[in-house]
Amino acid sequence: MFAKYFFKLAILLASLFVFHFSLPSNASEVSKIIDDFTDNPEKRWQFYTDQVMGGVSEGGASVRFDSEGPYVRLEGSVSTANNGGFIQIRTNVSEQSKDAKGILLKVKGNGEHYYMHVNTNETISLPQQYRFYYQASFPTSKNWREVKIPFSTFKRSSTQISEYFSGKNLRTIGLLAYGRDHNALLEIKYLSFY
Predict the structure, then answer these.
(1) CA distance 104 to 99
(2) Is residue 8 helix, strand or coil?
(3) Which terminal residue of the chain has fewer beta carbons within 10 Å of its beta carbon, N or C?
């Protein structure tokens, strides 16, 4: 009788162990993906330059593929002439993660720092809506690396909006080469909340 009870207990414990530890360690992160550039990302992301406001920066964005799948390349020449100074890709955000602490990117580039601009319900409702945003910078290197951008590091573009960005009510995300004369090369494999 004891052997039969011990056998059942061992099976139960083994089942719990297998179920608990067979899940990938990042299983909770998978549901927080913002975009991994599969399934026609050109329908979700738009490319902009400062030419919409009289600037002269030039560039483009394209979907590329490597052995791990698709990624997006943002490249061009950023010029601050005529009060310009950016090239950008931007997407709308429809789903959010309420418990997230920030945004994680897998990126590589030419060693320059690049920027993320986010808009919220508050900023998007103001006149000249994309003039108001929260901004954070991130580094790149020639190899793929994950970069975490905590919500607490975003700075507001104007005192007309709330001082802090908490990650709530997120409406758009933009990835930019911004603010100085330089040649840009930024590649993005995915974005997710963390």
Answers:
(1) 14
(2) helix
(3) N
* Distance, CA of 124 to CA of 37 (rounded, Å): 24
Q: Can you tell me whether residue 24 is helix, strand or coil?
A: coil
| Cβ partners under 8 Å of residue 157, min gap 6 | 131, 132, 133, 134, 135
The amino acid at 59:
G
> What is the Cα–Cα distance from 89 to 61, expressed in whole angstroms?
7
pTM for this entry: 0.82
* Model confidence at 10: pLDDT above 70: no
* 111 contact partners, CB below 8 Å, separation of at least 6: 139, 140, 141, 142
pLDDT at 127: 82
The CB-side HSE value for 89 (13 A sphere, CA atoms) comes to 24
Token pair of 174 as six digits: 């933009």
The 10s digit of each residue's pLDDT in 135-159 is: 999 999 999 999 999 999 999 999 9
| Residue 145 identity (one-letter amino acid) | R
CATH H-level, domain 32-193: superfamily: Galactose-binding lectin (2.60.120.430)
Alpha-carbon gap, residue 152 to 79, rounded angstroms: 29
Return the residue matching tokens 């997710």: 192
Strand 45-49 relative to strand 102-109, pairing: unpaired
Give 52's DSSP letter.
G
Instruction: Give the integer Cα–Cα distance in Å for 140 and 107.
Output: 7
